Amino acid sequence: MGDQLVTDLFRFSRFELVQLGKSSITVGGLAAAIVIIALAVLASRIVASALRRVRGRASQAAPSIYIFEKLATYGLVVFGIIAAFSTLGLDLSSLTLFAGALGVGLGFGMQGIVKEFISGLVLLFDKLIRIGDYIELQTGERGIVAEIGPRATRVRNNDDLDVLIPNSRLIEAPVTNWTHQNGARRMHIPFIVAYGADKEKVREAVLRAAHDIPFTLKDTSARKTQVWLVGFATHGLNFELVVWPALEAVKRPNATHAAYTWAIEDALRAGGFEIPLPQQELRVRSFFGEQGEAARRTLGLHADPEETQVQTPSRSVNDAAEDLVRGAEQDADDPLQSKPRPGG
Fold it and tell me: Rounded to an integer, what is the distance from CA 317 to the centroid of its chain?
């Protein structure tokens, strides 16, 4: 009984399903091919899971391990497909013409998928964008690169939302990599103070508030926290806090910007500086044909001696000018400008 069952199974496995050229596909060959492909996919997932755990523990070598992980998973799947075709007993040389026609058809129908796959491989080996980098696209998407897949790159923003970006966009369109080579980046925090405020006291108060924030990097000869006067608005002086935050803060620009803005408001309020609101002023230049003191006397008004007294401006520190001088000195030391320059 047992021998008969084995004989029947053997005959069933030899049953021919279809003839392709000189090769015939049998039930047994098809079943073996399916098992091989399934084992290859399972092996690729096991290897990917193991390498993912290793990558999580090795932060420095994580980008290289990620590249090896992708190559290993793709390689196992491709090897399984080739082994499955061999198990089927197909004579691939006899299918050359068919494969060529199929390739042309797939080239037109799947050119988008092939383009994204090749772009993904370029991103893996180019290393300008790596896992863990904080990137920003011109269209507004930004976040930490969590995965570079065969079709799209998964970017996780600061709200823990995953954004899928086609790989080709990261190659063809301009991309800002905020954390390339794990370097520090400078941020500009704008604020406004009413006219008449002492610029030096504003600078001292804001710098003190910025240095009190724990993720502000300490000043060095090349990187300093500064306060710049950048313009004159209709209702006040436009300033910018120019600060170098730590790498962890750079990856969270919205929270970092909000933290510095909060600290600046606290410092200005504690220092008694007015944060102006948009307003319109009406100034009468002449009154019944008279101007200046003559108009005052006509109205019975007298100017306050303190208002007419010329005030000598106190000397203040111009951080922007010092930044330009420091940048020029660095350019002189390095004519090719190969080192990052804080100025500009």
Answer: 34
